[in-house]
Design a protein that fits this description.
By secondary structure, the protein is of the alpha+beta class. It contains 4 helices and 9 strands; from the N terminus they run ααββαββαβββββ. Strands 6-5-8-9-3-4-7 form a 7-stranded mixed sheet. Strands 1-2 form a two-stranded antiparallel sheet.
């Protein structure tokens, strides 16, 4: 018994928008999961398919800070937070602070504590990179009064943009609702 098959040609771009949308969603979730520690669904990152193009949007929210927050940091931890800003073409975030009281600021310099930066809008957490040749991109020598110190956080995929709000935690130290500035 012989079977005959009829071969018909379909246009190649018939399912292209649907496949492109699925591909982008899969690609975003695979890239964000190992880097940020959250999935795309958990992070608030959404990919929407429109007839013209595929758009990615990140939800934002307004965050208010208490006027005495800086005074609290000076009294409790002996530091004055200067800024958090993007650097390295947006792939790193620089956190700068000035030590006013070295004894109070000592816990911030312990090598055992692992600093974390949390993006408030998405809930993603970022760490201080530790390259093999240079070590952790932060200061861990004993602090000195009236000296400015820094640490860098990875910002893979430039997820955190200027104007975003972040929290920084170093052991018991927590700096809340810091606004990311643009690199100058």
């Amino acid at each position: 018994m012989q079977q005959h098959f009829k071969i018909t040609k379909r246009p190649l771009n018939e399912n292209k928008p649907l496949l492109r949308s699925r591909f982008i969603k899969l690609l975003c979730s695979l890239l964000l999961l190992p880097i940020c520690g959250t999935s795309v669904a958990e992070s608030g990152f959404s990919v929407a398919n429109t007839s013209d193009s595929i758009m990615a949007s990140i939800s934002t929210q307004k965050v208010a800070t208490h006027p005495r927050e800086k005074t609290y940091m000076k009294r409790q931890w002996g530091v004055e937070i200067l800024y958090v800003r993007t650097t390295a073409a947006g792939y790193m975030l620089e956190f700068r602070y000035k030590v006013l009281d070295p004894d109070k600021a000592k816990p911030l310099f312990e090598r055992q504590t692992k600093p974390q930066l949390t993006h408030i809008e998405s809930g993603s957490t970022f760490i201080v990179p530790t390259p093999a040749k240079t070590g952790a991109l932060r200061n861990s020598d004993p602090p000195l009064a009236n000296h400015t110190y820094w640490m860098f956080f990875a910002n893979p995929g430039q997820l955190i943009k200027p104007g975003a709000h972040v929290n920084i935690q170093i052991g018991e130290f927590i700096a809340k609702q810091l606004t990311v500035q643009e690199d100058s």
